[in-house]
Design goal:
There is one protein chain. This protein is an alpha/beta fold and 210 residues long. The protein has a single domain, classed as 3-Layer(aba) Sandwich (Rossmann fold), CATH 3.40.50. The strands form two sheets. Strands 2-1-3-4-8-7 form a six-stranded mixed beta sheet, with helices on both faces. The radius of gyration is 16 Å and the shape is globular.
């Protein structure tokens, strides 16, 4: 088999640490068919793992960075999933409309976003909800995974340190307050369907379009 970008595969250590716990959440939301759209797929390691694990659906990757898209294609080829998985979309969350065809839009059953909103400006979180509602139908889900601050809940020292390190890299980055994210969601027609505590002080937040 020809592997187009074998040497372009990226390896993100966090993937190995969190993929099984994320899969344990996802298994409760996987539809019988259709497409799950992943926003900001990064290296592509999550994508191929979940595609192997959930063969009933098609995992559609996306990322704004070319190096990441090459890595995704390489991982797809390496795992021999090119007959199943489409190539990644060159999708920037904040550029509206997203490059999604009418055909693809009709197949989307859910949207997944892993470790994005704390390493992007707040406007990215707003755009995520604003655009997701264009492509999801009533009762379909948007899942956001990552660290959050929560009102009336003590923040771990590791998350406080992480937030500080993020802000040192970029003043627009940082761990988001869950209640503020929920408010943006509600303003766009999303309600919290489930909130799951995850390892390493992360959360999986499942929003439903009402």
């Amino acid at each position: 088999m020809e592997e187009k970008y074998l040497n372009d595969r990226l390896f993100f250590p966090a993937t190995l640490r969190n993929r099984n716990s994320i899969a344990d959440v996802l298994k409760n939301y996987i539809p019988d068919n259709g497409v799950l759209l992943e926003i900001a797929s990064g290296s592509g390691e999550h994508a191929v793992f979940f595609q192997d694990l959930f063969p009933s659906i098609i995992w559609q990757t996306s990322d704004p960075e070319e190096t990441h898209r090459k890595s995704i294609i390489s991982w797809i080829d390496h795992q021999e999933l090119s007959s199943k998985m489409p190539e990644p979309l060159a999708l920037d969350v904040q550029k509206s409309p997203w490059p999604i065809t009418n055909e693809l839009s009709s197949l989307i059953k859910g949207i997944i976003c892993i470790n994005l909103i704390h390493i992007s400006p707040w406007s990215c979180t707003k755009a995520l909800f604003e655009e997701s509602k264009r492509y999801l139908k009533k009762n379909q889900f948007l899942m956001i995974y990552g660290p959050f601050f929560r009102k009336h809940k003590t923040t771990s020292q590791s998350n406080l340190n992480f937030d500080q390190s993020l802000k040192l890299q970029n003043r627009e980055w940082g761990i988001r307050h869950l209640e503020m994210v929920n408010e943006i969601g509600l303003n766009n027609g999303f309600v919290v369907d489930n909130l799951i505590d995850m390892p390493s002080n992360n959360l999986s937040v499942i929003y439903r379009l009402i």
